[in-house]
What does this fold into?
Amino acid sequence: MSRLVDRLDHFDWLIFGIAVSLSLLGILTIYSATRMPDYDGVLISEGFRADFFQRQIIWLFAGITFFFGVLFIDYQWFKRTAYLLYGISIFLLILALVAGKKTMGASRWINLGFFSFQPTDLFKVSFLIALSSYLHDIKTRLTARVIFKIFFLFVLLPVLLIFKQPDLGSAAIIFIAFLCIILIYGAESRFLKLAMIIGLISLPFLWPVFWENLKDYQRNRIQAFLSEEVDPAGIGYHIKQSKIAIGSGGLFGKGYLKGTQGPLRFLPERHTDFIFAAFAEEWGFIGAVIVLSLYILYIFRGFDTAKRARDNFGRYLATGISVLMGLYVFINIGMALGLTPVVGIPLPFMSYGGSALVTNFIMAGILVNIRMRRFEIFY
It folds into this structure.
């Protein structure tokens, strides 16, 4: 009992507080962006879904439950079960591809009847755990041979499976996260030179194959990123409306429940991919800076947790979670500003989505777990 009290004394209220605060801001924005607006005394009911924010509240409680559930498990348990968790997540990815629920032409969901979830979200956690465990065990410098071995063991198959769903954004996130973690771990400089040479030589041959395997809407997203006029009625329209929403917010915003781009359906995916634009319209530049500051503080706290971890496994795992969070925030907000291609990446904690929200709380719980146990000695 005293040991539990000691751990709770080191409970990280900052990480937990930021996670809950961002989630609550997300729920407020989801409600506002999907509400039934009153336009000149006429209620516009088209596209109105009252259950979006209600469902997100339920998922928030579920996420908090998983968060505290993770705290009671020593994170070394994740190391012992790393490859089992990784294998299960690979099986779920295959199951989603073969027998998953199709939504807008993508097989990303597994339907259990009473709820559906995206196995890709769960895979990201098991991927970080498995990669961290392997890096902890090898206890050697990352030569080019070792890095390619890690790539073929942990990255190649899931990236192909996720790309096939198709989910280009998540596949790219996993690959980029892998590169970032490898660089932070300390890859040899000659590996970087070798990778650049191989990449430049392979690009003319691989790009046509990659391009041919993209769906039409994915090609449009890349083309619209280069020029909005290429797809003015599609993704180009998304980006343009997102910029309008952010710009119209000004310094202090229009005020809560006074935004128009979301409720009047000008802004597509206003509660998921472009929730930052819907938020910035109502809360303005000041609100956007506050949200960005919360994310930056969360990420820096994650890296600080990695620095203070009691062992290398905890250090690598906390680093991976922080890198993943940073990539999600950068790409999603970059999408809203037209700085990155629109690849369907949600904004952590804020965007609508149950499996993503629960997974984010699980990762937050792992960070707090690592921080709580940094003074303990294990054998």
About this structure: The CA atoms of residues 22 and 349 lie 6 Å apart.
